[in-house]
TrEMBL record:
ATP binds at residues 11-21. It catalyses: 7-carboxy-7-carbaguanine + NH4(+) + 2 ATP = 7-cyano-7-carbaguanine + 2 AMP + 2 diphosphate + 2 H(+). Its cofactor is Zn(2+). This is 7-cyano-7-deazaguanine synthase. The gene is queC. The keyword Nuclease does not apply. Catalyzes the ATP-dependent conversion of 7-carboxy-7-deazaguanine (CDG) to 7-cyano-7-deazaguanine (preQ(0)).
Length: 232
């Protein structure tokens, strides 16, 4: 039997990246986890979840990188104590205060280095349509451009595909696929504000709760409150 192809997966500890892990495995890849702590409010909880997920799938490797420069740069409510985490506004078309300037380019750059060093043929990221409505570095055009950066900036014999499998999907679509794949969502965390229990009112909690509510499923993590966000 031939050796499985390897994939670096950006694993934040959240439900989208956890689903991306199971999607990559379902496609036949051996998972190499890359988790970064960048000074976000729930960094310790996210690392705990990422490690639990790595254990669940028997990941080939787990690389944890501190990217404190993103917190030092600031200008995001995820990293700057002077900025409040906003309550959910699911209909907003603006860029939310939780946007970390050019974060995905930073993370993907590390993922490319990690992938090239470990002969990985793919990088998976769990970004999706509700992300790119607010975050410019989650747009399909961004990933297409970054693929060009990978192709030009790596060794001639290196061939790494950047895979964003959910980029045109809603959060509900992702949750539905994850439940189908058996993703242990109890080992994921999405809250921008608190690390136990989840607040239930920030954007990340709202989109997550809405996805489970749309599917008639109960989100297995603990919340301080569970408002109704269902849209169908």
């Amino acid at each position: 039997m031939s050796e499985r192809e390897r994939a670096v997966i950006l694993v934040s500890g959240g439900m989208d990246s956890a689903t991306a892990v199971y999607e990559a495995i379902d496609r036949g890849y051996e998972p190499y986890f890359l988790h970064t702590s960048y000074g976000q409010n729930t960094a310790a909880k996210e690392l705990e979840c990422a490690r639990a997920l790595a254990e669940d799938v028997d990941a080939a490797d787990f690389l944890h990188v501190e990217t404190e420069h993103l917190a030092a740069i600031g200008a995001s409510s995820l990293t700057d104590d002077e900025m409040a985490v906003e309550d959910a506004d699911l209909d907003s078309d603006g860029i939310p205060s939780s946007y970390v300037p050019f974060r995905n380019a930073n993370l993907l750059s590390m993922a490319v280095s990690y992938a090239e060093a470990n002969d990985c043929s793919a990088i998976f990221i769990g970004a999706h349509s509700e992300d790119f409505s607010g975050y410019p570095d989650c747009r399909p055009d961004f990933f297409e451009a970054f693929q060009q950066v990978i192709d030009i900036g790596t060794k001639p014999e290196t061939d790494i595909e950047l895979v964003a499998p959910f980029v045109e999907w809603s959060k509900t679509d992702i949750a539905e696929r994850g439940l189908e794949l058996g993703v242990p969502y109890e080992h994921t965390w999405s809250c921008y504000q608190d690390d136990s229990p989840a607040c239930g009112t920030c954007d990340a909690c709202a989109f997550r709760l809405q996805a489970f509510q749309n599917l008639g499923e109960r989100d297995p993590i603990e919340y301080a409150e569970r408002p109704s966000y269902a849209d169908r």
